[in-house]
What does this fold into?
Amino acid sequence: QVQLVESGGGLVQPGGSLRLSCAASGSFFTISTMAWYRQAPGKERELVAYITSGGSTNYRDSVKGRFTISRDNAKNTVYLQMNSLKAEDTAVYYCHSARPGATVWGQGTLVTVSS
It folds into this structure.
């Protein structure tokens, strides 16, 4: 069974950094578009960033210049490096995998940005 397992969440002060990791099992990682979403309490889930199988990336405007998504196909892992964190970045962050005919979600990891 394909699954995604996130790690790296936690408590960080404003201006600090965290790196999230998402380890994928299964055979289709290299042909999948990988993405990070986030959901704050009482809010809709929103796309943070994605990276295609070819390595092209896109980010929502509010994280541009602060967050970097990357992937290591040899390790079947996608990362989200988060710098200059703000209180409004506080959310549960979810890893997502998409390819034609299939979509998979991770269980989420909580990021709390607070003093």
